[in-house]
Every structure is written in structure tokens, then in C-alpha cells.
Design a protein that fits this description.
- By secondary structure, this protein is an alpha/beta fold.
- The strands form two sheets. An eight-stranded mixed beta sheet has the order 2-1-3-4-8-7-10-9, with helices on both faces. A two-stranded antiparallel ribbon has the order 5-6.
- The longest helix is centred in the first third of the chain and has 14 residues.
- It is globular, with a radius of gyration of 19 Å.
């Protein structure tokens, strides 16, 4: 990656073209992320984008910055490692409903309760899209999928409720087809000091067979007359208005880094000053 000041969309795009189904809501999600990165004028040497497995994880190949495509369900432990090693780093995680709340569910709970200063963006498409549409933790009741031909029987999890009750200090929701609103919510999440969570409603156009996008869109409403500082109200609205978009909960609190590091920055190592043989030895150890 060439290090220079990035000011336009072209600067942040890679040569790899996004590979999703035609008309996928993820194209809109990606545009919102590009827009935020440009608007916040991120320093590419101080920004890392971490993705999990699934359709969402592919985004790490489309953004020209430091990125990691992690193992299934493991983007959060990697993100925590980055943030504790270098608290000045802007750390953003992109993950899907299956990756983040199935195999990665426990990681989410404990990262949120620590209030580590990272931003987690979930693209909620209600199924495992990349592996041909199996039911995911957020699949609604009676949704017919390749693994539930007679319909989903389990009650779906509510990502907003889990985030709030786990200790996240910024919990919000957006709708993929409203790029400007998604942009504004992600921007606020990144600017928030603490663990911030953005759930983007992004129905899979190929395997989400409950309804089409137009029908789904009619169910999405703005969260109005809401006091996001009231945790009890936030939980109540998250239960009752789970398809509403906006900020459900926001709280200012000390981050995990502030409490553990107590203002001390870990020792920074300039790898350019290390002997080449030592660097090669470290690389060989993980080859």
C-alpha cells in the first residue's frame, strides 16, 4: 500500500471489484463506509479495517488501507489486540450476523462489556449468504432456508438488545438503502469514545425469501421521540421497534484502554530499525 494523503473515493478503492450478487444491499453499505472514511479524513497509516468470514468479510479486499480478513467469528479478538497494542489506531470491524452472533457471539458480549474503543459494523442479511442461504441467528421465524425448509422455528436474537445489555456504550441501527442516514450513523459511531455498534439492516436479495426489498422497506421507520441516554427506554425500544433506525443508546464512560493502560502508551517498535534476519525469523515462525 502506498502511503499518501487520501482525499477521494478512488484513493480508497482497491483494484479488486466487489463480488456480490447484482443488486446486493452490501454495495450501498460499502458506499456509506467509503463516504465516512473520506469525510473523517482518516490517516491510512493509522486506520485498520478488520473483517470476518462471509459476504461482509470481502469488504477488506475493497478498501485501500491496512486490513485483515480473519477466521470465522474472530474479528473482535483481533481488533482488541490492535487497539491495546496501539490505542491511537482507528479500529473498525465489519462483520455479518452469522459471523458476529453465532460462532463469534461470546466475543461480542465480552468485548462490549469491556467498552473497548472500537467500532463494530454488522451487515445483517438474516441468512448465511455466502454459503447458500442457511438460517442465521437473526433469521426471522418461519423463514424458509436451505437448512429450514419448513421455516425457522427458533426465536431470532435481537442484536440491539444484546449490545445494550452487554455494556456497549453506543448502539444504533441503519437501513442499507438509505446511504446518507447510514453514513451519518456510522460517522457518529466512529466518533464515539467507547464500544460502538451499528447494525445495518441489509436483507439478502438472493436467499432472504420472506419478502422483497420494497416490502421490507415499508417496515423500516425512524426512531422518534426517543431519549437514547435512558438504558431502560433503549432496551424497551430495541424490543418493540427492532426495525427502526437511529441511535438507540449512547453513554459516555471510561474505556477499557483508559482503565488498563492508565494513560500509558505501549512501547512502539519501529520495525525498519530491526535487523532483517530478526524480521525474517518472525515471519518464518508464522509461515
Amino acid at each position: 500500500m502506498t502511503i499518501h494523503q487520501k482525499t477521494s473515493l478512488k484513493d480508497w478503492q482497491t483494484e479488486i471489484k466487489p463480488q456480490w450478487c447484482p443488486g446486493c444491499t452490501y454495495f450501498a453499505d460499502l458506499q456509506a463506509i467509503y463516504k465516512v472514511i473520506i469525510d473523517l479524513n482518516f490517516d491510512p497509516t493509522n486506520f485498520v479495517l478488520i473483517g470476518g468470514i462471509g459476504c461482509t468479510g470481502r469488504i477488506t479486499s475493497y478498501v485501500n488501507t491496512y486490513t485483515i480478513h480473519t477466521l470465522h467469528g474472530r474479528p473482535l479478538p483481533v481488533a482488541v489486540g490492535f487497539k491495546l497494542a496501539n490505542p491511537k489506531m482507528n479500529v473498525v470491524v465489519v462483520s455479518g450476523d452469522g459471523d458476529l452472533f453465532a460462532i463469534g457471539g461470546t466475543h461480542f458480549i465480552h468485548t462490549a462489556r469491556k467498552n473497548i474503543d472500537i467500532t463494530v459494523i454488522m451487515f445483517d442479511n438474516f441468512v448465511y449468504g455466502l454459503t447458500k442461504g442457511q438460517a442465521s441467528p437473526t433469521s426471522p421465524l418461519n423463514l424458509q432456508t436451505s437448512t429450514t425448509p419448513t421455516g425457522v422455528k427458533e426465536v431470532p436474537i435481537n442484536p440491539l438488545v444484546i449490545a445494550i445489555s452487554s455494556g456497549a456504550t453506543f448502539v444504533s441501527q441503519a437501513f442499507a438503502l438509505d446511504v446518507n442516514d447510514t453514513f451519518n450513523i456510522i460517522k457518529q459511531a466512529i466518533n464515539h469514545k467507547g464500544f460502538s455498534f451499528v447494525n445495518i439492516l441489509s436483507p439478502c436479495i438472493t436467499y432472504y425469501r420472506m419478502e422483497d426489498l420494497k416490502s421490507f422497506k415499508t417496515k423500516v421507520k425512524k426512531l422518534e421521540n426517543h431519549d437514547f441516554s435512558d438504558i431502560n427506554l433503549a432496551l424497551s425500544r430495541a424490543f418493540s421497534d427492532h426495525l427502526s433506525v437511529g441511535i438507540f443508546y449512547k453513554k459516555e464512560d471510561k474505556t477499557y484502554e483508559e482503565q488498563v493502560l492508565n494513560g500509558n502508551i505501549p512501547i512502539e517498535v519501529d520495525i525498519t530499525q530491526l535487523p532483517k534476519e530478526k524480521i525474517q525469523k518472525m515471519i518464518d515462525a508464522y509461515s
